[in-house]
Amino acid sequence: MTLGSHQTTIGKSQDHITPRWIINRLGPFTTDPCAADPRPWNCAEHNITEAQDGLRRLWCGYTWLNPPFDQRVVGRWIERLAQHGNGVALLHARSEARWFAPCWRHASGILFLATRLKFCRADGSEQPHNSGAPPVLVAFGEYALARLEASGIQGQLVTAWKRIGEPRMLAAE
Question: In the chain, at which end, N or C, are there fewer CB atoms within 10 A of the end residue's CB?
Answer without folding.
Answer: C
